[in-house]
């Protein structure tokens, strides 16, 4: 019996679904999750010692490839000096300085341990700063699993959301409005009716949790001008896009200065680290300066900070994002070409080190369009690629991630495998 299957069966006895985060269970694609034994560069090896070329990269953090020697060394050295103190360290000041230097919109920043914590705290802060309750999010954007953000669109225009998870009281989502991504008119109508009640608008500035979906320039400009005019806080949730789509993040690509930004994934270099930061006048409302409470026993953990700092330094090497972006674009374009040759309907897109492919004629622009693609076809493609030793996200609604360890030859190897896989599923 496969060791992966054996571990999965054993795990299911003591861990719900055998996994510690639901998408890992292969629920959408079926089959047995690969249990990772070790990883290096662009590859990981499963419990049966089979090698895979990894396009998940821990869902984003592994931008340098797995186990980069400089990052591993930084963590090992930090560990020698102690694992956690519950008192401030020099590293925390250094990484905060680095984040503020790289992101002009961030004047002050607070470190936390997960993206969920970063967005939850940013929303509390926006509410505390404005004295308003209402928050606006977009359907298909994921901002972690805090109660008020686990919400799906209500029926009809300008309605409040319903909880999208059990265990979330409707009272918790009563103040959350869910609008359509890229719908400028709906956004403008909402601000016209309720603008002076809106504490904040939070979005994935390039969405990666409903496959990859980019906003129009008009949409992000409307977001900035409407929030500014109505005194609402604009939150760019860059937990996924931060330092991955560009060194200046999505906000730099868009030429937008948000009021608050959330970071995670790449900023922690594979360790539990995330952050929220922005305008100094808003950040001054956070405890101990202000009355908005926020805290964490392991916040700014020295090992996480060491991994984050080492990662931020390495991605600032000249040409890093240009190279990463060119390889990712080649992958996305190559997938579409291979599909055309195989007679399979597929479109694709990429930004920096993130890519999406869609079993539909056109690149989607909203959640409704993203969920209209051919899921059955995705499942068959996923498994055909897995047989080829290529590990894609086990869900049709997640973006893919390329690391700098994915060199040109590995991208070509992937495209050759994709051509065979597509021929098999055509
Ligand atoms: C991953 C993600 C989160 C949640 O981060 P966790 O560290 O998993 O809690 C929040 N927002 C976005 C955009 C993400 O991609």
TrEMBL record:
<dbReference type="InterPro" id="IPR015424">
    <property type="entry name" value="PyrdxlP-dep_Trfase"/>
</dbReference>
<dbReference type="InterPro" id="IPR005814">
    <property type="entry name" value="Aminotrans_3"/>
</dbReference>
<feature type="modified residue" description="N6-(pyridoxal phosphate)lysine">
    <location>
        <position position="265"/>
    </location>
</feature>
<dbReference type="GO" id="GO:0008483">
    <property type="term" value="F:transaminase activity"/>
</dbReference>
<dbReference type="Pfam" id="PF00202">
    <property type="entry name" value="Aminotran_3"/>
</dbReference>
<dbReference type="GO" id="GO:0042286">
    <property type="term" value="F:glutamate-1-semialdehyde 2,1-aminomutase activity"/>
</dbReference>
<dbReference type="InterPro" id="IPR004639">
    <property type="entry name" value="4pyrrol_synth_GluAld_NH2Trfase"/>
</dbReference>
<dbReference type="InterPro" id="IPR015421">
    <property type="entry name" value="PyrdxlP-dep_Trfase_major"/>
</dbReference>
<comment type="pathway">
    <text>Porphyrin-containing compound metabolism; protoporphyrin-IX biosynthesis; 5-aminolevulinate from L-glutamyl-tRNA(Glu): step 2/2.</text>
</comment>
<keyword id="KW-0413">Isomerase</keyword>
<comment type="subunit">
    <text>Homodimer.</text>
</comment>
<dbReference type="InterPro" id="IPR015422">
    <property type="entry name" value="PyrdxlP-dep_Trfase_small"/>
</dbReference>
<protein>
    <recommendedName>
        <fullName>Glutamate-1-semialdehyde 2,1-aminomutase</fullName>
        <ecNumber>5.4.3.8</ecNumber>
    </recommendedName>
</protein>
<dbReference type="GO" id="GO:0006782">
    <property type="term" value="P:protoporphyrinogen IX biosynthetic process"/>
</dbReference>
<dbReference type="InterPro" id="IPR049704">
    <property type="entry name" value="Aminotrans_3_PPA_site"/>
</dbReference>
<comment type="similarity">
    <text>Belongs to the class-III pyridoxal-phosphate-dependent aminotransferase family. HemL subfamily.</text>
</comment>
<dbReference type="GO" id="GO:0030170">
    <property type="term" value="F:pyridoxal phosphate binding"/>
</dbReference>
<keyword id="KW-0663">Pyridoxal phosphate</keyword>
<dbReference type="GO" id="GO:0005737">
    <property type="term" value="C:cytoplasm"/>
</dbReference>
<keyword id="KW-0627">Porphyrin biosynthesis</keyword>
<keyword id="KW-0963">Cytoplasm</keyword>
